[in-house]
Structure formats: structure tokens, C-alpha cells
């Protein structure tokens, strides 16, 4: 992987970077300087709106506009993304589209490397007839593709798993999973929280059915802005039971029931959108769009490769895949006492986190310099 000498790291646009080496993009991205302006613009709009005109003049459209920009990052078409309060709600919205008690196709396949919400949400559906199968990981790093494919059969309703694992940064082979699932009449949902903004995504090309995620990590946005991608040709067939007035065809008629879902992706909305969250994500999205996910990924491959080589040369245990084609943007390094190591590193101004059974999670993003990445590893070497 060659150094991209033309990449503008936009460091001056992230004030937090002055306080140390930020390697936490898998958790909480640094705030873009322009987020302050954006939040003030929100306040100004709020102060100046004296009636419901706030909705008519800008706020109603904002959710769809931000959704379309996220759709573009996901490799989907305009009109394919509905903003959600968070990724867990996005997942529950899709869960609420299926009737497990009435259908023999009731199997949900997840994996041991998914974020806990995945299991919590599907286990909750077990009480209404879903049969949840968790594909295990032998090494805690990867889940063999064969095991995922073997689990998919004619009773499978949905394969719901992380595109990139928050635990190990393992990246699944999307095309093989979608191909097998569709052949058996099943749908595929990917949690792309750990890949959107770090890895190129191709929602339309992949023909994947659903994507869920949020903006606070690799997309440098604020909290409470989740998103849900639904394959455009599927949208009208689905009627989420997790719903509300914003999903209605004519929300401002405040019509009596029955519910009449709108035809657009807004049918996956619930209630009043979180307007401050939408303002908070605009500057980060703009930076990611301008830098470009293709270049971000190129840099990420080069630096994660360096970090893994550095670790393996010293005999450390790396809890992320060695193969770049199976990896997201993070590198997990086993240490005995994760919380203590996170504290030691923070004292030296290296900001990472840890997870039980995993060790340290370290994530270089486009704004990190090569020197920062090397310094972080050398400081870690002093402690290990
Ligand atoms: C892969 C993944 N999915 C889901 C979540 C949780 O998302 P939310 O808090 O928006 O539900 C996280 C992290 O917070 C995550 O890393």
C-alpha cells in the first residue's frame, strides 16, 4: 500500500486532535469545528420560528436530505435511507415488519461477533415465534463464511449480522451471503455502523435488503442520528409495526386510523425527528464526502497493516484478521488488563478503548498522521 501524498487530512477542522492521538473512530469520532456553527444555526432557526412553519420551511425536508447523503455513502440511491433515533431502533423497525408466528419462515441468523443489540432485539422476537440461530466464532476474531452459508435454508427469514465486527473488525463477505440468502428466499440485514465512512459500501450493487448504522463513529457526526437503508423495490411491501404519525402518507392531516403508510422510505419513520442530531451530522458528512471513502479506505489499509506488522513482530496477540480483505478499519490488540492500559495510554495522550476478551481497540482514520500511528504503537510498546 503506497502513501497517498495528496490526501488532505483536514486536521485543522478537528479541534480535539490538538489534545492527543485520537484512535477512537470505532467509538466516538472527534467533533468537526464547524459542528459548533451548525448547532448555532439550529438554535437560530428554533429561536426565529414562531409557529409550525419550522417544519414547512426546513425541518421536514432535512431528514430526507441527510438520508440521501448517507445513502450515497452507503452506495444506495436517493430515497433509500430513513433517519432513525439510533441503530437499535432501526433494527427493531425491521424486526417489526415480520410476523414470525404466522410464517414457517421464522429463522433469524446472527453471529457471535455482532453488537449486543443484534442479539437482544432478535431474542425479544423469539417470544413471538422467531427462531434465532447464532453462528459461533471459534477464535473470537472471525466467523467462517461456510458456517454462515450452511445456516441459511428455506426456513430462513433474515440473515442479520455486522458487516464489520465491533469486537474484532472482522468483515464478512457480503456478496456470498446475499447470493445464498436470496436463493433461499431470505433477506439480509447488515449492521454497517463500523464500516460506513471507513470501508466502501455498495448497497445497490450488493442487492442487500437492509442496512443499519449511525453517524457518531467513522462519519464524525453527533449522537442520536441512526439510519436505515431499505432496498427501494422492497419498501412498499413492508409495514413496520414500530411506527408513528411521521410514517403516514399525509402526516399533517392527523387522520383517524387506520394507518395509511406513505409509499416512500419515510414509512420506516416513527415520530418527530431529532432535529439537533441532523444539524450535528452535517459538517462531518461534508468532510467525509470531500475526502472520499475510497481514499479513506486506502489509507486505512496501509496503516492497519503497519500496526498489525508492528504488533506481530513483537509477539503480541492481534485479535483482528490478518487478511486485509477480511478487515475493517480497526486493530484489536490483546493486553492483560485493558482498562489499566487504556488509562496508561491516555496519560501519554493516546486515546483508545478496550472491550472484555478483546483487548485494545485502535482505529486510525484519515485525519491521523503516520507519525501519530507510529508514536501510538511505540508508546504501547513501552507498556507491554
Ligand atoms: C456495530 C455496532 N452496531 C450498533 C451499535 C449501537 O448503535 P446504537 O447505539 O445507535 O443503537 C454500535 C456501537 O455503539 C456498534 O458498534
Describe this structure in words.
The chain is α/β, with parallel strands linked by helices and 384 residues long. The chain has helices at residues 34-48, 53-74, 87-95, 116-126, 145-151, 174-183, 203-206, 275-291, 293-313, 338-347, 370-383, and strands at 21-22, 81-84, 107-111, 131-135, 156-162, 187-191, 210-214, 226-230, 331-333, 350-351, 353-355, 359-362. Strands 2-8-7-6-5-3-4 form a seven-stranded mixed sheet, sandwiched between helices. A three-stranded antiparallel sheet has the order 9-12-11, covered by helices on one side. It has a two-stranded parallel sheet with strand order 1-10. Helix 7 (203-206) links the parallel strand 6 and strand 7 (210-214). Helix 9 (293-313) runs parallel beside helix 11. The chain starts with 20 loop residues before the first strand and ends with a helix. The mean pLDDT is 96. Pyridoxal-5'-phosphate binds at residues 86-88, 115, 117, 162, 166, 191, 193-194, 214, 226.
Amino acid at each position: 500500500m503506497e502513501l497517498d501524498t495528496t490526501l488532505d487530512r483536514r486536521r485543522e477542522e478537528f479541534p480535539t486532535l490538538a489534545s492527543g492521538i485520537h484512535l477512537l473512530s470505532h467509538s466516538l469520532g472527534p467533533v468537526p469545528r464547524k459542528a459548533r456553527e451548525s448547532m448555532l444555526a439550529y438554535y437560530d432557526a428554533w429561536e426565529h420560528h414562531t409557529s409550525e412553519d419550522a417544519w414547512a420551511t426546513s425541518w421536514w425536508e432535512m431528514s430526507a436530505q441527510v438520508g440521501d447523503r448517507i445513502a450515497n455513502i452507503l452506495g444506495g440511491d436517493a430515497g433509500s435511507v430513513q433517519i432513525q433515533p439510533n441503530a437499535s431502533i432501526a433494527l427493531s423497525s425491521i424486526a417489526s415488519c415480520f410476523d414470525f408466528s404466522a410464517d414457517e419462515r421464522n429463522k433469524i441468523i446472527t453471529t457471535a461477533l455482532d453488537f449486543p443489540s443484534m442479539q437482544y432485539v432478535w431474542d425479544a422476537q423469539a417470544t413471538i415465534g422467531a427462531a434465532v440461530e447464532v453462528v459461533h466464532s471459534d477464535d473470537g476474531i472471525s466467523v467462517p463464511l461456510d458456517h454462515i452459508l450452511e445456516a441459511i435454508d428455506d426456513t430462513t427469514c433474515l440473515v442479520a449480522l455486522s458487516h464489520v465486527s465491533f469486537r474484532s473488525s472482522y468483515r464478512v463477505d457480503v456478496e456470498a451471503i446475499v447470493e445464498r440468502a436470496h436463493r433461499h428466499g431470505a433477506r439480509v440485514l447488515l449492521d454497517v455502523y463500523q464500516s460506513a465512512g471507513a470501508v466502501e459500501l455498495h448497497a445497490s450493487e450488493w442487492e442487500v435488503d437492509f442496512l443499519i448504522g449511525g453517524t457518531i463513529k467513522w462519519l464524525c457526526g453527533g449522537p442520536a442520528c441512526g439510519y436505515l437503508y431499505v432496498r427501494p423495490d422492497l419498501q412498499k411491501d413492508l409495514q413496520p409495526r414500530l411506527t408513528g404519525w411521521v410514517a403516514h402518507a399525509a402526516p399533517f392531516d392527523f387522520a383517524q386510523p387506520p394507518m395509511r403508510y406513505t409509499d416512500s422510505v419515510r414509512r420506516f419513520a416513527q415520530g418527530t425527528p431529532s432535529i439537533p442530531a441532523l444539524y450535528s451530522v452535517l459538517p462531518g458528512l461534508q468532510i467525509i464526502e470531500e475526502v472520499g471513502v475510497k481514499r479513506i479506505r486506502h489509507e486505512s489499509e496501509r496503516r492497519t497493516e503497519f500496526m498489525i506488522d508492528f504488533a506481530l513482530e513483537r509477539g503480541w496477540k492481534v485479535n483482528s484478521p490478518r487478511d486485509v480483505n477480511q478487515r475493517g478499519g480497526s486493530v484489536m490488540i490483546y493486553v492483560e488488563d485493558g482498562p489499566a492500559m487504556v488509562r496508561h495510554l491516555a496519560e501519554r495522550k493516546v486515546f483508545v478503548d478496550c472491550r472484555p476478551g478483546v483487548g485494545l481497540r485502535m482505529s486510525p482514520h484519515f485525519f491521523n498522521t503516520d507519525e501519530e500511528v507510529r508514536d501510538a504503537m511505540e508508546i504501547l510498546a513501552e507498556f507491554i
